[in-house]
Amino acid sequence: MFDAHVHIIDPRFPLIENEGYLPDPYTIADYRKRMSRFDIGGGAVVSASFQGTDQTYLKAALAELGEGWVGVTRLDLDASDEEILELDRVGVRALRFNLKRAAADITQMTLQALRAHELAGWHVELYMDGQMLASLQPVISKLPALSVDHLGMSDEGLPYLLDLVDRGARVKATGFGRVAMNVANTLRRIHAVNPQALMFGTDLPGTRAGRPFRDADVDLICDVVGVDMYAVLEDNARAFYRLPVRERQVNDPAPTLPLHRTEQPTLPLRRDELPRIQPADTIPFPVIE
């Protein structure tokens, strides 16, 4: 599995109060303990509003998590090309536009995103209520690659979200406890438009969500997408974050074996060896008048 949306809250690094809120710590050790029953082969650490544009925590987290993990960050608008390239070297792969809980100059952010894409191939991840998608179309249309957090948050924005998916946008199957929608129906509709769009994530620790991630959320995704579950749980996100495809061994505990023959197979008879029917053996049917 690839967890495409995780927040690491390390008390060693500064936090910024957001709307009067400061989260409790949630360390890498906490995350690993919570997800110990799952085979997690990588993921994306996402910077939250209360982490501002601090990069020290993100660099430390990616270094500790190791191979297969990437970062999604917010940058100061005056960040240099060298800063972007340095962050790319340590594993950062995207900019986050937090339009739900952070004030932003959307025009300047878009220009920065275009620069980061040109320099390092970064995409943009949008955190906002789906109702804003319509008003942001002029901005979104300029972004070369993007994903939308938490299924777009609400049913009202679903038509606009599906239009973006049809044009190549990705959607994070995350935050089921913070959305106002029928999750199964939304997953089904997104998957029907583009099977490569959905990317699983836990959104742990689920700060300010109605409820945090549950193991049953994975079951729900698998029930909806069926045979595409490996794509949604891992492959789609790895491709989007430009990571190597993870080789997957599929072992059949009871493979079908060929039957062992105990006797010679039946051989075809030659035509001249077939028994001949004598003419007297053929009895015509009586004529019925």
> What percent of residues adopt helix (DSSP H or I)?
25-40%
Spatially, the strands of the biggest sheet line up as: 1-2-3-4-5-6-7-8
Number of helices: 9
Number of DSSP-assigned strands: 8
Name the structural class. alpha/beta
Tell me about the largest β-sheet.
Answer: 8 strands, parallel
Describe the overall structure.
- The chain is α/β, with parallel strands linked by helices.
- The protein is 30% helix and 12% strand.
- It has helices spanning 28-34, 56-65, 81-89, 106-120, 137-140, 158-166, 183-193, 215-225, 229-240, and strands at 3-6, 43-46, 69-73, 92-98, 123-127, 146-148, 170-173, 198-200.
- The N and C termini lie far apart (81 Å).
- The mean pLDDT is 89.
List keywords for this structure.
single chain; 9 helices; 289 residues; alpha/beta; eight-stranded parallel beta sheet; globular
Gist?
Helix content is 30%, strand content 12%. With 289 residues, the chain is of the alpha/beta class. α3 (81-89) crosses α4.
List the helices and strands and how they pair.
Layout: E1 3-6, H1 28-34, E2 43-46, H2 56-65, E3 69-73, H3 81-89, E4 92-98, H4 106-120, E5 123-127, H5 137-140, E6 146-148, H6 158-166, E7 170-173, H7 183-193, E8 198-200, H8 215-225, H9 229-240
Parallel strand pairs: 1-2, 2-3, 3-4, 4-5, 5-6, 6-7, 7-8
Helix pairs in contact: 3-4, 6-7, 7-8
